[in-house]
């Protein structure tokens, strides 16, 4: 068996951050091939082996578009090519062409304890040159050409990085055309939500914020948020608080007011903060500081930052005009429509993370929605990329905000999909690389963020986390911590997630042990998901070279079936 329970899982369990639950420990064996591949027939196992082997050849991966488009399409014809793809790469990593075609796979996975996060993975397949031009066109209107020079290097639209897909291994991408196109994307997401609700219980649907608005707005809003946080860090350093964790930095209000008045600030920060707190401690932290942006229309005199070149204060929202406010409203309105459909269909929304120069705005808009809709239960999940140096600060501040405001914190933790693009962009444009220096540091950051959220769940049962990882050590670490904290799988507070077609030896044993585990399930027509499949092949190259275990287990199971006369085994459900 893949699980061993030392007691009835239904009986109590430890509570609180320090309680150890020795009575309810559940362990999962990830080496039992019979259990891991119970949902697969032998042809599916063989397909996995062939696809994973092909993904390990550099030439095929580097030239995959040319090989697929030119060679295979010409030799086989379009119909033959589609059939070949369904028997290989498409069949391995994509669930089907539309919401009807994907149902059998979703229901089969569900029967073996694995849920689905539906992801309609169609994207525009245009050339890199077209992508760059499209991005620049969307980002620079005539009225903005003069003011855009003031944006920090990180938050400019750069032609070289206009193609969001370049150097990206995991995510699908959208290019901005106009508001009508954003509405079209919203309708696509609605269909995905309905498909998720109609196919399984307690499903998820993935949403990408760049599909719902204009990238230039996300760039500008990100710049506003980051500049404001940096000003807080500067003020903290003036009070000798630098080097502390973000949440531990507290500014003395009187001291801060005196300093800002000397700089030329006209607003009364002391009065504003004191008036809003029933028991004012005379100090504020980063969350209090960030709350000023929520009230930006009434207190513009408080929202000032230093201009280092001019040596004076300037309005933070100088470039954040009525048009930007309208852009924000339109994105939030579209998100609002999606959340209402999700709630009607019993589906939760997973907001994908994107590039660092867009992410501050995406996270902030997601928080706005969580504040409204996560009051009673977790409906919207934000994604945190743990390869970022600031990941821990982001997680801890959002958890603390949810505590103060009384809503359910809900997170998906990933390592990250944009590393090569982010590094290249930072180097090219002369700002600090936002990515951790190596894989070990990223692992450490992932576990640090995960432990913090798990402790929070143990303390008040209001937080929720999806451990989206293919790393067996991370999954084992999570199980160990759950046992220590007395967190039972039946509480549905800790979820696990892997991509369809990968790491079945982790997903299915977890599901059969009673843990909430989900496959990220892409779907869409063969031709239109080719860009997604192309990047999946690239991601698998690194993954398959570094991890031989999955292939070994697949061979082991095939040999076991041959030896025991079960080669014609068909999953029963």
From TrEMBL:
UniProtKB keywords? Acetylation, FAD, Flavoprotein, Mitochondrion, Oxidoreductase, Proline metabolism, Transit peptide
Which domain of life does the UniProt lineage start with?
A: Eukaryota
Under Gene3D superfamilies, the record lists: 3.20.20.220
Pathways involved:
Amino-acid degradation; L-proline degradation into L-glutamate; L-glutamate from L-proline: step 1/2
Please name the top-level EC class of this enzyme.
oxidoreductase
User: Which cofactors does this gene product need?
Assistant: FAD
According to its UniProt record, which reaction does this protein catalyse? L-proline + a quinone = (S)-1-pyrroline-5-carboxylate + a quinol + H(+)
Extract the ranges annotated as region (Disordered).
1-23
Q: Which family does it belong to?
A: Belongs to the proline oxidase family.
Supply the name of the protein: Proline dehydrogenase
Please name the taxonomic classification of the source.
Eukaryota, Metazoa, Chordata, Craniata, Vertebrata
Record gene name: prodhb
